[in-house]
Amino acid sequence: MNELDPNNIPKHIAFIMDGNGRWAKKRHLPRKFGHKAGMDALHRIVEAADDLDVDIITVYAFSTENWKRAEDEVDFLMNLAVEYFIKELDELVEKNVKVKMFGERDRLPEKVQQAAKTMEEKTQNNTGLQLNVCLNYGGRDEVTRAVKNIIKDGIPVEDITEETISDYLYTSGLPDPDLLVRTGGEQRLSNFMLWQNSYAEFIFTDTWWPDCDKAFLVDMIKEYQGRQRRFGNVNED
Ligand code: FPP
Predict the structure, then answer these.
(1) Where do the H-state alpha helices sit in the chain?
(2) For the domain 6-138+176-224, what is the CATH code?
(3) Which tens digit of pLDDT belongs to each residue from 41-65?
């Protein structure tokens, strides 16, 4: 099944987990069932990323724009986030996974903030795969927050470089994504990691997120391994 080049595994993969609602609709189920199945898919992808020696995965679970959804869907997603952090804790600790939450915490319900904090604290010294869960995350919001904090910290204008900005983002100290995968058929970035995805390879696939599993991740990495990354340089072949 594998046939991957072990020397060219992307270190950091970002996922826009889209298509949960349509997955449910096709089965004549309420949207919630799609999100629940999406959580199971996240479990499979974390496991697969760990098996395949990916260093970091960052997943877009709830955007700053997702508050516009129906109140009961928002509540369901918040409860699902709590359920994820509580139910997966022991297994993630055992797998040596380090978990971080990226996003503006203050607007999230207290129970989500608390569950995320517990997960982060219990996994902070882990040295295996890093899983970043984006909740109430927006790329523009992240950059705005960085600029405000740079000013608050009194960094002199002449000292501000691209590295300064990077250091003030949630991803401070982490390499940028090598690969961005968006499931669900749409071909847009939807305010996700605007700064960090500058040189990522993009894959847009029609597969719905709840259908994703290890075989899917292997296919994504195979496609990545077929790409030539030039980072603005010329093709030397
Ligand atoms: C987009 O699908 C998906 C979301 C807004 C939620 C993503 C959430 C999960 C995968 C659940 C697991 C994770 C946690 C930690 C909460 P959509 O609803 O926009 O699908 P559609 O475009 O088909 O309607």
Answers:
(1) 20-26, 31-51, 71-87, 89-94, 110-123, 139-152, 162-167, 214-225
(2) 3.40.1180.10
(3) 999 999 999 999 999 999 999 999 9
